[in-house]
Amino acid sequence: MDPRARSGRLEDTPYAAILLSLAAGETSAVLELRRNQLQKTIVFDAGSPIDCRSNIATEMLSRFLVSTGKLKAADENTALSESYARGVPVGEVLIERKLLTPTYLYRALQQNLGRKLLEPFSWTTGTWSISLDVPPSSSVLRVKVPQLIVTGIQKVEPQEHADAAVANARGAYLSLTENPRFPLDDVRLTANQQKVVDAARRAATLDELRASGIDGDDLNRTLYALLLLGAIETTDQPVRERPKEAPPVEAPPPPPPARVDAAAAEEVMSAYLSCRRKDAFDLLEIAEDAGLIAIVKAYLAMSERFLPSRFDERAPDGLREKAQDVFLAAARAYAELADPTRRDTLIRKRQRLREEAAATAQAGPSTLIDPEALWKSGRTLAAAGKLREALSSFELAAECDAQNGTYAAEAAWCRYRLGNSPASTAIKLIKNAIRIDPTSGVAHLYAGQVQAALGKRLEAEAYLDRAARLLPGDPRPAEAMKLLRVLDR
Fold first, then answer.
1. Do 204 and 214 meet the contact criterion of CB atoms below 8 Å apart?
2. 312 against 394, higher pLDDT
3. Where are the alpha helices (DSSP H) in 119-215?
4. Of 48, 38, 215, 231, which Cα lies nearest the Cα of 124?
5. Which end of the chain is more exposed for a tag (fewer CB within 10 A), N or C?
C-alpha cells in the first residue's frame, strides 16, 4: 500500500494492508470503512488501534457482555437507559451499580475492541479513507497490529485470499526473515502456528510442512499472515537460521507479583478508565464555582490516593503505571483550574457541551443494524418458504458479525436451497462456518445434510451426530439422520 494514499477500495487495498501500513509508519489517524450499510471508524495512535465505533448493535459493550453471560439483558436495558440519560459510558454505570468490577470492565473493553477490529478482515468489498486529523480520544486501550493480523486472518479472512497468497509457494523453502518488519515476540502463536515458524527455522519446504498433518486451510492462513508480517519468506534454496551467540547465563526467575489491596487496585482501575474522558472539574470532583482552597484540597487528596510509589512495580495489570497516569491527570487538572483564564475557558466549553448533549438527546439515538434481529427475521422468512428474502437477512447478519458461524451457515444453506451454490461450494462454506464457531449446531446440521446429498454417508452421520449433541431438544438432526438411513436402504 502507498503510505501516501488517503482513500480507496477494499478490493484494491485489503484491510490487512491498511493496518500494516499504519503500524509500520506509527501513524496516528482515523480510518473510515464502509461496506453497503455497514460503517466502522477506527482511531489509531502511533500505529496502534485504540478505539473503534460502528453502526452494528452487537458490537456495543453491553451486548458483548450479555453474549458472554456476564450481564443480564434486563440489567443491560437499565444501564443503557441511565447511560444515555446521563451522557456517561455504560461501563461506568455498570461499575456504579456493582454489576462489574473496574478490572473486569477493562479486560472486557479490550476484548470487545479486539473483536470489533476483526470484522473488516471479512470485507472483500467496500471503501476506506484515512484522515490525519485525529480528535482527542478518552480510550486507554491499545491493540497490537501483528497479533490482530494473525488472529484476523486465522479467524475471518476469506479462505480464497489465503489460498491465493501461497499458491505459488509449492516446492519453495521457508525461512525466517533476517530483519522482520514486526518481531514475532509481538504475537502469541498457537501450537500449529509455531510449527510453521519452526519449519522456517530449519529451512523446510512447504510440501514437507503440508505432509506434517496440519490442516491445509489453516496452514495457508498461517503462512499468509506470517508472510504479510514479513516474519517468514519463501526461497528457491534452503536458508537456515543463523546460529545465535551463546546465550547469557540464565538469570534467576523474577519474583512473583506483589500482593495488592483489592479495593485500592479497583479504585486505580476505575479512575484510569475514566480519567481521559473527564475534564478537570469532573476528575477532581468539584463544582464549577469552587474556590481555590477547595481546588487545592481536592487535588492533594487525589494525588495522595494515586501516588505511584504506593503501588509495587510488580503489581499485576501494570497497576503502578496506571496509578501514575491518574496522578499526572490530577496534576494537569489542578494546573488548569488554578489558572483563572483556562478555568473560564473550560466553564464555557462545559456549557456548550451541555447544550449539544441536550440537542442530541432530543434527536434520539442513532439507528443501529442488529445482526441478531436480522438472523431471527431470516429464520422466520425461511420457515415461510421466502428463501430469497431470508438470504438477504442472513447475508447482512453474516456481514455484521463475521465471527458468528451460525449466521454464515444459514446464508450458505439458504444459497444451497435456492440453487445458487452447488453442494461442493456449500459444504466448503459451511465447513468454514464450523471453523469460525465449532459449537454452531446448525452449521453441523447443514454440513450433514449437504454431505448426505453428496453421497458421503459416514461424514454426514458424523456431522449429524455432533449437531444432535449441540442442539438438544431440536428434532432436525434426528429427522435428517432418519432420512439418511431411509435413503441407504
1. no
2. 394
3. 145-155, 159-165, 191-201, 206-210
4. 38
5. C
267, 294 contact by CB (below 8 A):
no
CB atoms under 10 Å from CB of 439, counted, come to 11
Domain 264-352 shares a fold with domain 371-488: no
User: Is 399 buried (19+), middle (13-18) or exposed (0-12) by CB count in 10 A?
Assistant: buried
Q: What is the DSSP string of 303-334?
A: HHHT-GGGS-TT-GGGHHHHHHHHHHHHHHHH
Instruction: 12-17: list long-range contacts, CB under 8 Å, 24+ apart.
Output: 13/128, 14/161, 15/120, 15/121, 15/123, 15/128, 15/152, 16/121, 16/149, 16/152, 16/153, 16/157, 16/228, 17/228
Residue 310 near residue 323, CB atoms below 8 Å: yes
143 has pLDDT over 60? yes
The DSSP bridge partners found for residue 39 are 34
**Dihedrals phi, psi of 367, to nearest 5 degrees:** -80, 130
Dihedral sign (CA 190, 195, 201, 203): negative
- Domain borders along the chain are 7-135, 148-235, 264-352, 371-488
- Report, as an integer, the average pLDDT of 191-205: 89
Could you tell me the end-to-end alpha-carbon distance of the chain, in angstroms, rounded to an integer?
58
DSSP string across 126-146: -EEEEES-PPP--------HH
Angle formed by the axes of helices 423-436 and 405-418, to 10°?
A: 170
Please give the model's pTM, rounded to 2 decimal places.
Answer: 0.86
The CATH homologous superfamily to which domain 371-488 belongs is Tetratricopeptide repeat domain (1.25.40.10)
**CA-CA distance, 214 to 223, in Å (whole number)?**
12
Q: In this model, does residue 418 exceed pLDDT 90? A: yes
Contact present, 114 and 148 (Cβ < 8 Å): yes
User: How many residues are recorded in the chain?
Assistant: 489
Considering only the top CATH level, what class is 264-352? mainly alpha
User: What are 52-64's pLDDT values in tens digits?
Assistant: 999 999 999 999 9
